Amino acid sequence: MEIKTILEEFEVIAKDPVTYLRNLSENGKKIVLYTCSYVPDEIIWAFGFHPARVLGISETHQLSNSHLQPYCCPTAKAVLEDILSKKLPAAHVVFSNTCDTMQRVSDIVRINTDLEHFDFMVPTRLDSDTSKKYLREQILNLAGFLKRRSLLLEQDRECFDDVSKINSAMELFERIYRSVLKLAEIAQMSNKISNKDMHNIFFASAIMDREDLAKKIEQLNDCIKESTISNSVKKKIVLTGSLCCFPGIYEILDNAGAKVVYDDLCSGIRPYKRRIKLTGDWAYDIAKSLLERPICAAKFKGLFERILYLKDIVKKYRAQGIIFLVPKFCDPHLFDYPDIKKEMDVPVLLLETDEKNQIKGPERTRIEAFLETI
């Protein structure tokens, strides 16, 4: 299969995840929505459900505006709109305590919908043994929630072996993580995969059938030959911050000849920076992999964890600038920004996305001007 064909398949899903999920639902897949990359979606998959992340694709917030104030994070509004509008077919939803606003979104969904609801509580502080024990218990609770509902779908209850199913899912997801990281390494040097292509891959990966995803990523890696590697990239950029659901910024960077050498967003590579090593205690193994992945601004792992991590990324990929992408009113990430801007050895551009989470004319001008200075 050609690279272009595979990339087009990812683009179709990224552009219209609703149709993709509806087709899965009509074909008998039971979909479980989840709202944060800290939710271990391999557990959802293990119990026979299809995990689909709610990334906030809604561009209008008519329903969510009746519940949230105007100054609330537009991503939280979009996530709430996605769920309240019932455009995403699902019977269950898993929330995580990402931030104060998302915790309130969880309350609103629980009160105003018929979705069966689970709050997956990730510790805010991740640098202690207590955090690991607590997270392990949360993973077991999530597994119990899903198992009880999966048994309702299982024809032969005596054949339901949750440990073997979970271990099998963990092996599949570890295969996905390795393949995605390999692709990201190749893409930052390749002239065959654009910034927009990688955005489509990351976005679609949170929606797709995971077995199909593993095959497609491996096919991409196999298709990319040494001849596609190019050292002609003039401007190397690191993206960091919250998440990005729309490809506008990637298109601008493509048109300007810049390359995103590292997409440190929670809708980018961050969720895939996990290594699952099976030790016989699957809940511990998953908890350990989540605690050791790169943290987001809503979590704490030392005063300088994020700064040192980004410094290492900039040095490793020889990046010439950082674009800090964050929704307006996103306090956790905006608290991070002053220190990151101060401590980085390369220029940092802050971009706040608006109510529709899109890049408009003024933002385009700022990006283009920023690229001219590096």
Walkthrough of the structure:
With 374 residues, the chain is an alpha/beta fold. The protein has a domain at 6-161: 3-Layer(aba) Sandwich (Rossmann fold), CATH 3.40.50.11890. Helices cover 49% and strands 12% of the residues. The chain is built from 14 helices and 8 strands. The protein has helices at residues 3-15, 17-26, 41-46, 74-84, 100-112, 129-151, 162-187, 195-205, 210-223, 248-255, 282-292, 305-317, 331-343, 361-372, and strands at residues 31-34, 50-53, 92-96, 116-120, 235-241, 258-264, 321-327, 348-353. The strands form 2 sheets. A 4-stranded parallel sheet has the order 2-1-3-4, with helices on both faces. A 4-stranded parallel sheet has the order 6-5-7-8, sandwiched between helices. Strand 7 (321-327), helix 13 (331-343) and strand 8 form a beta-alpha-beta unit. Helix 4 (74-84) runs parallel beside helix 5, helix 6 (129-151) crosses helix 11 (282-292) and helix 7 (162-187) runs parallel beside helix 9. The longest helix has 26 residues, at 162-187. The radius of gyration is 20 Å and the shape is globular.
What is this entry, summarized?
The chain has helices spanning 3-15, 17-26, 41-46, 74-84, 100-112, 129-151, 162-187, 195-205, 210-223, 248-255, 282-292, 305-317, 331-343, 361-372, and strands at residues 31-34, 50-53, 92-96, 116-120, 235-241, 258-264, 321-327, 348-353.
Could you outline the blueprint of secondary structure elements for this entry?
Layout: H1 3-15, H2 17-26, E1 31-34, H3 41-46, E2 50-53, H4 74-84, E3 92-96, H5 100-112, E4 116-120, H6 129-151, H7 162-187, H8 195-205, H9 210-223, E5 235-241, H10 248-255, E6 258-264, H11 282-292, H12 305-317, E7 321-327, H13 331-343, E8 348-353, H14 361-372
Parallel strand pairs: 1-2, 1-3, 3-4, 5-6, 5-7, 7-8
